[in-house]
Amino acid sequence: MDDTKLTVRAVERALDILSAFTDETELSLTEIAARTQLHKSTVHRLLASLEGKDFVTRNAETEKYRLGFRIWELAANLSQSDDPAIMLQPEMERLRDSLGETVSLYVRDGGERIRIQAVQSNQAIRRVAPIGARLPLNVGASSKVLIAFAESEVQKQVLEALEWSGAAEKQSFVRQMTEISRFGYATSVEEREPGAAAVAAPIFNRGHKLVAALAVSGPSNRFTVEKMKEHASQIIEAANRMGKMLK
Amino acid sequence: MDDTKLTVRAVERALDILSAFTDETELSLTEIAARTQLHKSTVHRLLASLEGKDFVTRNAETEKYRLGFRIWELAANLSQSDDPAIMLQPEMERLRDSLGETVSLYVRDGGERIRIQAVQSNQAIRRVAPIGARLPLNVGASSKVLIAFAESEVQKQVLEALEWSGAAEKQSFVRQMTEISRFGYATSVEEREPGAAAVAAPIFNRGHKLVAALAVSGPSNRFTVEKMKEHASQIIEAANRMGKMLK
DNA sequence: CCATGCGTTTCATTATATGAAACCGGGTTT
DNA sequence: AAACCCGGTTTCATATAATGAAACGCATGG
């Protein structure tokens, strides 16, 4: 076992303990021990350290542990961050590393969608589209998302833009939209570019307003429909997390 | 050196690193090392652990470290807490342990103030007042705070209630109010109870609305005017932190 | 009164965190 | 270019410090 550890086990364990509080707001020592698969004694010591630094406190009534005020302090100094494109980048990289495909971020600007951030897949064959690119809003997974979750007014506009096309087209369009808003994500296969496929999910800010679409895209032979469905929930989760960062 | 350590040093250090981000949103490894008085190598290992668990990430541009999304996750699950009296209790205990005096929390209800939470000094001689007690709004440090930082309408009401008293009284009252709102805290010595003194600071929620007054009180011989002034900033800080927890 | 469950403490044993020093890469200066 | 500096990263010998089994204290309640 020489897979050189460049991390500190005790710290990782302590952080696991903190992470346990994503599910529950209050946990007893033994509950924590159970969740983290650590021995009581260890958890106790770790909790003592966390409590000493005010990362957790005990509810004097229930004797259980909960997150301490230091988390607030950190979170406070955190939300005032600046450029969303930069803020969201780390999370996008996480997703890229997890799925191995290019991840992009789009916003809607009138009848266009603009690619405001991207982290490239590091695989040999990959989709490329420059940051800042202005793309049509009528094709592509992210476009659909940006429409399906937009205010109804925007949707009306888009529908009117379809004026020239047949009633069947319109109907299909409407059905697609309802489906997307139902499942929470959209897919596209070779819509804008031959050989390219993508999944996209909406990003809502803390005020529940649609602000962007998060898209994962790759070559359609590698990025099959099954794979896309398989990854959808993960992408949606990432989008949710990202949304929480935006006010 | 047998002062039994029931804490884990590595963890404490890691938490110190996290705490460093209360001041700055972005720090480089060496900056952190300087602040925490730890050796580069150690910081590096600790940061690797923190990064692995997504408590910090690196801004891909600047190569510097910043807080990771796990902090958001935690903070998110944190803010939905329920009863302010319970939420704020740990922070009040901190203050009590630091100053050694009884800490109370008051809200205004019409022409009264209500004590909604308290953590007692553990010293022999101590001020006592039961939770839920409804007290007059015209005397006491916390009363003054609850008036001085209230909407002007409330202040007008209180002033009208002083109708019967002389113009000099009124003027003195107004001057006191402006002073309090200027310095951010109020004091009282033997106003409501002989032998008792108190300092109070306002608690504003995240919407900058006055929601409560935080008071520290003790016997006036022990809790002198000098001591009160000395502790004022600490009390104000605690009140600020507590306010951040309330939406 | 004895079981049960939880938090806390002790303690020997060894894994494991530590920090000095060396290393690496990329800028900047000479 | 060579030399230098300055971040970040890795290595490695050392003893420090984290570990977990077990025991303890202390409630609660069967």
From TrEMBL, chains A, B:
Keywords: DNA-binding, Transcription, Transcription regulation
A GO BP entry: negative regulation of DNA-templated transcription
Domain HTH iclR-type: 8-69
Molecular-function GO terms, alphabetical: DNA binding; DNA-binding transcription factor activity
Matches recorded under Gene3D superfamilies: 3.30.450.40, Winged helix-like DNA-binding domain superfamily/Winged helix DNA-binding domain
One Pfam family here: IclR_C
InterPro entries: GAF-like_dom_sf (IPR029016), HTH_MetabolicPath_Reg (IPR050707), Tscrpt_reg_IclR_C (IPR014757), Tscrpt_reg_IclR_N (IPR005471), WH-like_DNA-bd_sf (IPR036388), WH_DNA-bd_sf (IPR036390)
Transcription regulation is among the record's keywords: yes
IclR-ED domain mapped to chain residues: 70-247
Coiled-coil ranges per UniProt: none
Cited function: May be an activator protein for the gylABX operon.
Protein known as: Glycerol operon regulatory protein
